[in-house]
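JOB MANIFEST
job_type = single_chain_structure
chain_count = 1
residues = 495
[input]
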Amino acid sequence: MNNQIAVNIGEQRFDKLIEEHKFYIDKTGFIKEWWEYGSTVTLITRPRRFGKTLNMSMLECFFSNKYADRGDLFEGLSIWEEKTAAKEYQYRYLQGTFPVIFLSFAGIEAAEYKDMEYKITEIIAKLYEQNNYLLEGNLLSEKEKNYFRKVQPGMDSSVASGAVNSITGFMQRYFGKNVIILLDEYDSPMQAAWLSGYWDKAVSFFNGLFNSTFKTNPYLYRGVITGITRVAKKSIFSGLNNPEVITTTSNEYARYFGFTEDEVFGALDAAGLGSEKAQVKQWYDGFTFGRYMDIYNPWSIASFIKKNGKYDSYWANTSSNGLVNSLIQKGNAEVKIMMEELLQGKNITAEIDEQIALYSFSSFDLAKNASDDDAPERFYHGFVLGLMVELAPRFEITSNWESGFGRYDVMFVPFDKEKDCAYIIEFKVHKARKEKDLAQTVDNALSQIAEKQYETQLIAKGFAAEKIRKYGFAFRGKECLIGGGESCGKILNKI
């Protein structure tokens, strides 16, 4: 194989990728779609390693006046060639014309509230340091200059909460133009806050910061916020009621986070790996965002190309089950008994108190159209996975990893292969129009396990067929039916 593509795994700066002529799939259509959509504040949630940070860097390079006269970064890309009906270039005039603030909370994890607050103030203080030209001349009053100098790491939270709002006003005055604000990985510190027990303090802090930055900020032109999870408005967004929320169920921007099949196949051809298309599809597609199917994880594809066609589960599951883990640790003995019965091959029926569950799992991204009787499948996925993490001492528990021809929901790999079986679990929400009862939903879940050959990974690890148990979880409102285990083979034989 002759790899004709230079791949820089993990590079998240758009300008660096372009300048060094590294592997890049054109996602500048996102700029056009976002600009035309017109929302003042947009919150976009996607899993890790689906290009959120790179797209934010792309927005900065396109709009920021720090990149004025850097149209060369976009030459040959779709946004640069976009024309009006009159054959005039439609978006080139926007490049490098706005003051832009780009903040990232990625990697902010702290066991104590004060440590988290300090790290946030460090980021804000760095923003001020980068814009200390504002102190020159008479643009700011002496009072404003004194405030500017108070913005330091460890500053009082009352100062920090309004600091981004204030510098936005200073920049608007200096440039004569309202400011675009980009905030990447907004939820990273919130996950740590939940796990470490200072959620309420963090909520109070971020309420002030986010509201002053994105809601009560007259100097904001437009804003984009990205993260992995959608934190409910009852928490940190309690006062911020203006974001347009774009989740994995939304059609908006669905093509611009992850690779489409055409993009992947084109990259494989360019890398001299065109003969691998069918196998790559079996290994790495399977994601659906909105109405768009066959979306590929960029990390997996880039790694595959860099490794000259070596198949592997490249996408490290860097997300954490810590949120649900912390919740389930408070569960009672009944829950643990039910899980043990499940692993013994028994069927269980359980009721879910959705009011408690929805409150507890407000950090999960829930579908817009979910009703009381039809909660989204991924909610049940997260909830049940949380119930099962108590078994972590006996099993390696993974979720949504690639195996066979798709992605399984949950897999349990025992540390003691002689003592315990391995388990594959698939979740299905009952579809009344297509399935007569929960039992049929269970059958469909088990059929999917078989058709997608989710056991491939386990077989590769040396597990015999009789040591692999498959289960289907069927949900309907508060009802849950679990089937499979010993009887799974009978169902699989029908396929």
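[summary]
Residues 450 and 492 are 6 Å apart (CA to CA).
Residues 322-492 form one domain.
exit_status = 0
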